[in-house]
Amino acid sequence: MSRYIGPVCRLCRREGTKLFLKGDKCFTACILDKGKRKAVPGMHVGRRAKISEYARRLREKQKTKRMAGLTEEQFRRYFRQAEVMPGLTGENLLRLLETRLDNVVKRMGLATSEPQARQLVLHGHVQVNDKRIDIPSYAVQPGDRIALSEKVRQNVAVQQSLQTAPKRGPVPSWLEVNPAHASGKMRGWPTRDEISYPVDEQLIVELYSK
Ligand code: SF4
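# iron/sulfur cluster complex -> structure
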């Protein structure tokens, strides 16, 4: 299945929660904050019915997948990878998503949203250990140095993103950021509390374990 390219606020309405897919707008002008259009999108669905256990698990997976901007196939691949790693599958899954290069770029404050971070990577503006990497799914490892190319450092969107980064939340302790140079370093693996996905990963494990 291909990536979703429709209106992203619709996805938040579908999940009934903020997925933060539009960058700074999600903090300043979110339709969910205004208390409007909370209903599930669609012509004939006006309110949320009581949902089954299966639907609860499915929604948690959809929420996570949409926040990460992944297709079903990509998400399943991450799950299979998490299953064979030592430790808790759900936590492994979230750690794999959290340390993707596009997510690391976002968490460093170099981009306001996952789509913007992905674009920076895809356009070849991101370097890892002084080497250009244009793969959003690249798995960043502790000790890796991440930097934007000189060409894009003064870009208006990047500068704005760095300025508004504190409003979106503090830099997690597993990352080190030097905003003046639009660069940073991954210090170590994030703990579960430091992972930015506000989901119940156990529900995803239960869904795929059926
Ligand atoms: Fe979701 Fe952001 Fe749109 Fe709010 S503004 S509904 S958080 S994408």
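# post-check
The mean pLDDT is 92.
The two ends are 22 Å apart (CA to CA).
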